[in-house]
């Protein structure tokens, strides 16, 4: 069976790996338009000074089905010895901050914290649970709503303004007032709709049906997952940076005789013929494929099928993405007055940055300071216009590092990356749109599968699992 995989980011690489190494497909052709594999995962290593800059994702959560799946992949790739965990007792796991009203505020990380007043909140967070438990749900059943609306309605406006809005900035660089509640809280939303409140839903669902794991008999924890639970990993990365993962995948695929890896290979059109192979135009040359797995951003895929399937194309292009600027700063001495994972800035503060990650604190870079500043997202053009230069972004980053962290020295080294259209925005109605997209593909019997960040989750765990599920649906065991 000849299969074409479009896109050489982590999802496309994983799809090719599952096809060729795990499922042992006859022929896999992987096409990547850029000059490198790995997508948004990109690590710059300074061997001389002993630090790294991450331009994109830097850590992974070892939680749930998707987290277990990634750890299983790490085992298959024999990368267990490269795992660098941050445990729950580490300061980077316990201390996460938000910047509100010109102050850094430590977010509660345990039950004790939820029982007392923590600025900027005017009440202990458990008041939100009380509000939810005794509150009435809307008489009109909702199919979807924004995560801001849901949180404000169930737990209070302060939690929505400070905690949830900041978290959405950190995860998808988006506006919580637009992002679907199903993006992060699908299970909680469904419990609230069914039982009248989130907390009551959790309690009643547990009493009636047992734990989530009990309801998922297919969930088989891997040895590495069990190790993560026993040692209480909060997050983890890999030695040499997260780019180690796509690089090892690339090396494994290069060793396989059934895989053809192709860089600088830009797909311009996909044509589907009834009962026949798909025709994929790469750099002006048409290639035939029995099946196509696309890990491309949906807006790119929409252009490839627009000539033949305009309805599908219109749905795909409605999944918008945002631009994010990532500025890495390195200082040769420890300048941080605060220890922790970093800080997020809620949109109500009206600042051009989304947050700052304290890399040197997270990853044991002693006697130095390494920071990552994230800017833009939903508000990129508002703050920086359509085409900002690197110096403009660097100055914004340094200005806000000075304002928030009181670090006014010039960095010894820096890196500016502008990530165009890097994070899809799961706005209200996103999940219904994805259902329509997949139904169209199924109804029209198109030899096309979808994976990647545009559909079922934007995290590293999500896109790896999406690749596996696409392969398993195409080639059941």
From TrEMBL:
Catalytic activity, reaction form: protoporphyrinogen IX + 3 O2 = protoporphyrin IX + 3 H2O2
Gene Ontology CC entries for this record: mitochondrial inner membrane
Cofactor: FAD
A family per Pfam: Amino_oxidase
Role according to the record: Catalyzes the 6-electron oxidation of protoporphyrinogen-IX to form protoporphyrin-IX.
UniProt entry tagged with the keyword Flavoprotein: yes
Keyword Cytoplasm: no
UniProt protein name: Protoporphyrinogen oxidase
PANTHER family: PROTOPORPHYRINOGEN OXIDASE (PTHR42923)
NCBIfam families: proto_IX_ox
GO BP: protoporphyrinogen IX biosynthetic process
Alphabetical keyword list: FAD, Flavoprotein, Heme biosynthesis, Oxidoreductase, Porphyrin biosynthesis
Location in or out of the cell: Mitochondrion inner membrane
Family membership: Belongs to the protoporphyrinogen/coproporphyrinogen oxidase family. Protoporphyrinogen oxidase subfamily.
Species per Swiss-Prot/TrEMBL record: Clunio marinus
EC number: 1.3.3.4
Pathway this chain belongs to: Porphyrin-containing compound metabolism; protoporphyrin-IX biosynthesis; protoporphyrin-IX from protoporphyrinogen-IX: step 1/1
Region forming the signal peptide: none
Cofactor binding note of this UniProt entry: Binds 1 FAD per subunit.
SUPFAM superfamilies: FAD-linked reductases, C-terminal domain, FAD/NAD(P)-binding domain
GO MF, one example: oxygen-dependent protoporphyrinogen oxidase activity
Domain named Amine oxidase: residues: 10-474
């Amino acid at each position: 069976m000849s299969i074409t995989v479009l896109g050489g980011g982590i999802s496309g690489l994983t799809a090719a790996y599952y096809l060729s190494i795990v499922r042992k497909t006859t022929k896999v052709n992987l096409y990547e338009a850029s000059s490198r594999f790995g997508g948004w995962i990109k690590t710059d290593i300074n061997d001389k000074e002993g630090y790294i800059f991450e331009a994109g994702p830097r850590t992974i959560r070892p939680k749930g089905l998707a987290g277990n799946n990634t750890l299983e992949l790490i085992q298959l790739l024999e990368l267990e010895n490269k795992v660098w965990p941050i445990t729950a007792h580490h300061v980077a796991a316990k201390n996460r901050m938000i910047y509100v009203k010109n102050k850094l505020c430590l977010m509660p990380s345990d039950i004790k914290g939820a029982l007392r007043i923590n600025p900027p909140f005017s009440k202990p967070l458990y008041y939100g649970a009380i509000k939810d438990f005794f509150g009435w749900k809307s008489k009109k059943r909702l199919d979807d709503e924004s995560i801001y609306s849901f949180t404000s309605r169930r737990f209070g406006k302060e939690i929505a303004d400070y905690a949830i809005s900041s978290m959405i900035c950190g995860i998808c660089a988006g506006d919580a007032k637009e992002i679907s509640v199903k993006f992060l809280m699908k299970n909680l939303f469904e419990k609230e709709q069914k039982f009248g409140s989130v907390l009551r839903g959790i309690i009643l669902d547990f009493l009636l049906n047992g734990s989530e794991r009990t309801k998922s008999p297919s969930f088989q924890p891997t040895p590495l997952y069990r190790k993560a639970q026993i040692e209480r990993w909060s997050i983890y990365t890999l030695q040499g940076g997260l780019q180690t993962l796509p690089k090892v995948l690339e090396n494994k695929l290069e060793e396989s005789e059934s895989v053809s890896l192709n860089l600088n290979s830009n797909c311009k059109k996909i044509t589907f013929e009834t009962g026949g192979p798909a025709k994929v135009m790469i750099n002006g040359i048409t290639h035939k494929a029995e099946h196509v797995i696309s890990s491309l951003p949906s807006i790119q895929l929409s252009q490839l099928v627009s000539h033949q399937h305009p309805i599908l194309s219109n749905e795909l292009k409605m999944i918008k993405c945002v631009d994010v600027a990532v500025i890495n700063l390195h200082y040769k001495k420890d300048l941080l007055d605060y220890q922790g994972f970093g800080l997020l800035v809620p949109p109500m503060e009206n600042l051009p940055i989304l947050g700052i990650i304290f890399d040197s604190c997270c990853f044991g870079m002693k006697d130095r300071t390494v920071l990552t500043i994230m800017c833009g997202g939903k508000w990129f053009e508002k703050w920086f216009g359509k085409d900002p230069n690197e110096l403009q972004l660097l100055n914004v980053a340094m200005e806000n590092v000075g304002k928030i962290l009181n670090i006014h020295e010039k960095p010894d080294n820096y890196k500016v990356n502008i990530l165009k259209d890097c994070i899809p925005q799961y706005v209200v109605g996103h999940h219904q749109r994805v259902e329509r997209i997949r139904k169209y593909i199924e109804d029209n019997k198109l030899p096309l599968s979808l994976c990647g960040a545009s559909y079922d989750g934007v995290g590293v765990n999500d896109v790896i699992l999406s690749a596996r599920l696409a392969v398993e649906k195409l080639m059941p065991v």
